[in-house]
UniProtKB/TrEMBL annotation:
Belongs to the Toll-like receptor family. Its main location: membrane. It is a single-pass type I membrane protein. This is TLR1 protein. SMART domains: LRR_TYP, LRRCT, TIR. GO terms for cellular component: plasma membrane. SUPFAM superfamilies: L domain-like, Toll/Interleukin receptor TIR domain. It holds the Pfam family LRR_8. Coiled coil: none annotated. The chain crosses the membrane at residues 440-463. GO terms for biological process: cellular response to bacterial lipopeptide; inflammatory response; innate immune response; toll-like receptor signaling pathway.
Amino acid sequence: KTDNMRSLRIFFLYKCLFALTFWNRISLSVENELFKSFSNDFPEDGSDEKIKSLALLYTNSHQSKTHFDWVVIQNTTESLSLSEITNNNVKKLVALLSNFRQGSRLQNLTLTNMAVDWNSLLDILQTVWHSSIEYFNINSITLLSDIENYGFDYSGTSMKALTVKKVFITDLYFSQDDLYKIFADMNIAALTLAESEMIHMLCPSSDSPFRYLNFLKNDLTDLLFQKCDKLIQLETLILQKNKLESLPKVSYMTSRMKSLKYLDISSNLLRHDGAHVQCQWAESLSELDLSSNQLTDAVFECLPVNIKKLDLQNNQITSVPKGMAELKSLKELNLALNRLADLPGCSGFTSLEFLNIEMNLILTPSADFFQNCPRVKKLQAGLNPFKCSCELQDFIRLERQPGGKLFGWPAAYVCEYPEDLRGTQLKDFHLTELACNTTLLLVTALLLTLVLVAVVAFLCIYLDVPWYVRMTWQWTQTKRRAWHNHPEEPETALQFHAFISYSERDSLWVKNELIPNLEKGEGCVQLCQHERNFIPGKSILENIINCIEKSYKSIFVLSPNFVQSEWCHYELYFAHHKLFSENSDSLILILLEPIPPYIIPARYHKLKALMAKRTYLEWPKERSKRALFWVNLRAAISINLQMAGGQGCGETD
């Protein structure tokens, strides 16, 4: 009968709470009756039955108001989360928590949005301290009354970790020791006091069992734990986002923490200017986070010698100084978001295995980095403003080989310079071996130069270029001297119908056939011949140039003898020069004897061109055809010439 009554009572309790959750219309008297039933039905021996009953009581009660005026966030056999704790329901909460004595299965308790006075908070904390709860979390608490001394009993606790976040204190005047002493002397393994504008923390009064301390986002300064030798078991200390300024003072703070392994002092105001200030770190410290501070190159003078993992990202480091103290145990180094212009060497990091140097100012990282750092397994060097040039080719080639070591390849490795390659991934950037190998480029350029010189030399010899250069120089000098000697004279007037150029070996034909038939025949023609018209005292070249310029036409008597004459070559060159300079049709070619092509010297390329392009008169062997020859020749040089000085046909100067 008793068992039936108990079952009926639990069923009735469940139905009432279900109705309360959805309609919230249970009267205060019913609430009290429920609480009495709840209290009377649970045995007081600390057995697990009360946890099971509590789970039944709060089934489907996620964030819902109960008869205790707080909100149940989570409720299982091992975890309980409550919200909206005030001074009005503290006693009820303490009464509830008193049931969970040591040996109960409840291990995790979270209280959120608390607004209580100092003594009420400590009453709750004292109750939890002697319960089965091992992990106690308080999130967002407002302390409403004066903070005063409290005789806290630290004995006989199951608690392992206490976390308190977002504490707001309304009391402006109180003894700091009364507040901090409560937490400093706790004999638990882990303590977190975060986001609470805490300005100080006392050193424990005796050797502390703390192994983990987290004071994230407070206002702690360099005065923290100075000369404190009670944290001998502390392994992890988090001081991120505080107001620490002096790196040496922080190092002295750790020097008495004999077991410290991990220290996070990131996002502070830390500086270190060197100035021969010695640093003294805990010898056990193996992992240090110094990111997001104001540290420069001098930080490498103030580092733990046994450090294995070091985070220096987001500082003001421009280089890793040579000659720094060796960090022989360092395996991981983070230098991202600094001002480095190149990869650091490993002379001070002989055991380095991983390096992060992202988001610096590296244009062309050193290709010999992996040679200097043989133990490095991964290099994270992306998101730098890479300059895609020959210097970068060797660095890229390292990743294209089997077993590449670049972390984040290829997405994080992009060209920034030059502008036309901006956005191109380094894996798609290629330059030829010739463009990047200076030695090969110089050898190739030298070979090409030698080949070019050889070709030019051959052409110069084959085409007799030096001869033409010399002739051009002499012609220019002759013209210049003529202008300086007679600057007042007008442009040279034509005095001859034609200038005759021939080989001395063909002079008989010229004197016996050409001159008589042109000068003494019908239609008088005035010819310029070197034997009678060259002016004594002038150079032969000057005479040739003057005769050609004073003649309307230039007649060249071509034969095998002609191509063997150097002077004939001069005369042909100057006449050809006049042909192009004056744009006149002034050349008449007479082929006295056939000229085999093979006997024409290479430098007579102009003669070859003239004979190929221009019509020439061929001296006929048959006498019957010679009359027509002379008619055609006269027609070629026909001109009404106003003779200078009244000179007649056949007369000489």
